[in-house]
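Regression test case RT-17, inverse folding.

Input:
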């Protein structure tokens, strides 16, 4: 009996000893919920579709300004840009914007009026920001436009003061009698600009005639007709004209007909002077709007269209010299 009790006691002591050997004597606290080595939670990532109508200096600058502003605010690693160029074809804009909707992008940048129109037609839910769009009411067929599009659309406008552009014609060419207004009839905002400027010029006593081309195929012939009948030409912020400044200049300069342009890119290619905005800065403003929508949750339907804060008188020194035109003080040379 004593042997059995001794054996039982020894077995119990051995078991306790083994249990003690299997423990360090320290208690490890359980990991707190959500603690993963104190790492920060993953940042929100975004995909932005960019539909640009055509490649030229003004639109390129607006796109770059937009991207720079978005990357600066959100971080390069957190943004993917799906950048597409429609090569001047409105139908391509529709295809591109349709692809963006299928891909489920977080926001669409529509650079130029046809791109904006296509994006609005493609989606009523994905936020759409326009840029390089002159007049949103005209572009989107909004009667009595008051500055806010509503729905899923807003953006920035490149509209310069058209009365001041008309005054520039008067300032530079007071002895001229006839002004030809050269533009693309397929661009609604170009039509709006030339109609408005025509009214201001006629108030100054000029005889004005509209000369419209449909696309790049008839730019040269229409420009020739305009030069043959005009002392001065005016070209608005027109994407087709901006893509064909060399063809326009090849007609207008030999004919000795100066051009006042609606924006700097056109002026650099074929114009003598312009009252223009910075398209890069316009793109930056649009990018800041995108950040407010994506990161800050601002309601795009309540965001009014924003306008360029300042306009600069600029001139093309090469063409001014070639046409023997004296530029008054207050104009900045296009470098």
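Golden output:
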């Amino acid at each position: 009996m004593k042997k059995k009790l001794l054996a039982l006691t020894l077995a119990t002591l051995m078991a306790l000893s083994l249990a003690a050997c299997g423990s360090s004597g320290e208690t490890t606290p359980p990991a707190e919920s959500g603690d993963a080595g104190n790492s920060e939670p993953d940042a929100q990532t975004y995909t932005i579709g960019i539909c640009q109508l055509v490649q030229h200096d003004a639109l390129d600058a607006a796109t770059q300004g937009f991207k720079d502003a978005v990357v600066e605010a959100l971080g390069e690693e957190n943004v993917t840009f799906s950048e597409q160029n429609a090569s001047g074809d409105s139908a391509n804009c529709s295809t591109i914007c349709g692809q963006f909707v299928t891909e489920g992008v977080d926001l669409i940048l529509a650079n130029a009026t046809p791109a904006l129109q296509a994006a609005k037609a493609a989606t009523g839910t994905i936020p759409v920001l326009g840029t390089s769009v002159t007049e949103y009411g005209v572009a989107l067929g909004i009667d009595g436009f008051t500055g806010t599009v509503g729905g899923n659309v807003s953006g920035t406008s490149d509209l310069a003061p058209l009365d001041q552009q008309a005054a520039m014609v008067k300032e530079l060419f007071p002895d001229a009698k006839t002004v030809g207004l050269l533009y693309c009839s397929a661009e609604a905002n170009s039509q709006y600009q030339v109609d408005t400027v025509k009214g201001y010029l006629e108030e100054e006593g000029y005889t004005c005639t509209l000369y419209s081309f449909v696309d790049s195929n008839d730019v040269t012939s229409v420009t020739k007709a305009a030069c043959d009948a005009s002392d001065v030409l005016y070209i608005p912020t027109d994407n087709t004209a901006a893509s064909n400044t060399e063809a326009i200049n090849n007609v207008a300069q030999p004919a000795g007909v100066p051009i006042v342009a609606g924006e700097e890119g056109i002026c650099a290619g074929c114009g003598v002077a312009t009252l223009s905005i910075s398209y890069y800065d316009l793109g930056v403003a649009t990018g800041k709007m995108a950040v407010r929508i994506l990161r800050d949750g601002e309601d795009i339907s309540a965001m009014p269209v924003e306008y360029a804060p300042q306009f600069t008188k600029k001139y093309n020194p090469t063409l001014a010299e070639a046409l023997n035109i004296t530029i008054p003080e207050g104009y900045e040379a296009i470098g």
